[in-house]
């Protein structure tokens, strides 16, 4: 019997997930492996590529291919992962340090300033279609070169999470165009290739050989090597797709592939992908490549959303297990009136990405009184995220982007209370798909294309809508007023929040 099953794996911020799927989109098996993130210093976020990413992938494949399934059944594999991340590799292809994570890691602010001074902020935007922010990898490469010269001296390849995992399976260094777009200013989105134009300020020379090959997410990166087959149980020679950043695979998993489709991914962070036929560059957001050849995406991302609710549960619901804590908190928040009876939260607990692009922003609880309870505080946290989501959607529309359909995905999208709050605040209806497995499901589809089992047109039979969250019209005036106060709160407290960043080390010896 020929191999016909598809295997998709996504490595997220706090867990990795894999699915085994038929070519018709039927999920046969799922497996999840939790893991942690390291925060070695304020503004730093790191993860170990082998002990976390690769170990998770091996564990997931072995779990999926046990008890009746084997590598002989798998027609294709695709992986996605958090991104963009920066991982330096030796000439032997081994990590030289923990990976520096995406926009939640804001260590390279000095390097952003240096690159803007040397190249020019306007020149960078004109070249890349984006401004330098904590999401950009170019400044982090320069940080590595300046701050860890001993690592830099050994660096033969500069890669990212999904590309590293593809390399571990195939032995080939290749990165998808969407992720490469964030390696600015080393990537030129017009010819869609690496460019030496601004390489010297970033790399110290014009040698681009440290950068991987480029490909589209549904293209074939290679096939499983004998060594990878030995470590995973996959069949040697199994096709492997180029893969993608997790958010892009998540969008694919719910059919966000047509111009005007907007995905809101409720994860540890909240990520937005809007499919476009013509790009609309703007400094507030990110203009990047899509999953398929010729596609454009307008992308955006908040810094702490699901990770904020996790922090709240860990700190203020310690008397419950994790699952019980969330159930209790969301049930309590549902009993609190809209507006949390005068509470307002800025959800910038690790700085904020789009649209304010302020790594020095921090969280604020405003309007607290002795009458407020834990339920009020949690309701205000959920509403704070809702205001941030509205802020990003407004930024898209302000720059002339066409938003026609909003699809909600991710772990947070399983909570009706939160989705209703976001729709009420933003005024946007949110469509819920029938299957919301996540990015790994989109990866399985990419695996099918790379293996020649599927075509892009087959996605229509994989994805079906299930429900729609509609905004409550009667709440619009109150939430419009509170949204204005949310914007004012940040503008009025920004200087204080920035000044407080210098006080982090007070009292430490």
UniProtKB/TrEMBL annotation:
Q: Which GO terms describe its molecular function?
A: kinase activity
**What Enzyme Commission number(s) does the record list for this chain?**
2.7.1.-
Q: Carbohydrate kinase FGGY N-terminal domain: which residues?
A: 6-251
> Which EC class heads this enzyme's classification?
transferase
Query: Which InterPro entries does the annotation name?
Result: ATPase_NBD (IPR043129), Carb_kinase_FGGY (IPR000577), Carb_kinase_FGGY_CS (IPR018483), FGGY_C (IPR018485), FGGY_Carb_Kinase (IPR050406), FGGY_N (IPR018484)
Q: Which residues are in the Carbohydrate kinase FGGY C-terminal domain?
A: 262-451
Which keywords has UniProt assigned to this entry? Kinase, Transferase
Keyword Kinase in record: yes
Q: Which CDD domains match?
A: ASKHA_NBD_FGGY_RrXK-like
Regarding protein family, the annotation reads: Belongs to the FGGY kinase family.
Q: What is this protein called?
A: FGGY-family carbohydrate kinase
Record organism: Deinococcus oregonensis
